[in-house]
Amino acid sequence: MIRRLDHVGVAVRKASQRLPFYRDLLGLPLAKTEEVPSEQVRITILGEGPGRVELLEPTAEDSPVGRFLRERGEGIHHLCFLVDSLEATCERLQASGYRLAGGIRAGSEGTLIAFLHPKDVGGVLIELREVKGVQP
Ligand code: ZN
Question: Which end of the chain, N or C, is less surrounded by CB atoms within 10 Å?
C-alpha cells in the first residue's frame, strides 16, 4: 500500500551550487547530507516530512546519477513514494509486469528502497521506500 509521496530526487552536478536557491532563497531547511555507497551518490535532504527535496550528487562518474547527468543534464531524477511493505509492493507490481531496476537494497537513513524501471512507467523513475524506520 502506498502511503504518500516522500520526496523528489533532483540530479545535480554539485549540491553546493544549488543550495543557495533551495536553502537560502526558498528557505527549505538543510536536514542532512549523507553518502549512499550502494548508489554512489551523496544526498542532500532539504525540508522536512512529506515532499522533501533530495539533491543527488554522484560520487563517481560511472554511477546511475553520473550517467543520468551525462545523458540528460541536471533535473528531476525520481519520485519516491512511501510504502508499508516494500517486498509485498514489489511483488504486486512485478506480478502486473513492472520491472525493478536492480533489487531491494539499502537506501538513506537505514531504510529499504527499490526502483521501478522508468521504461515501464512512462519515463518516470519511481523509488519505493519502506515506511519502517522513516520519521513520521
Ligand atoms: Zn530518493
Answer: C
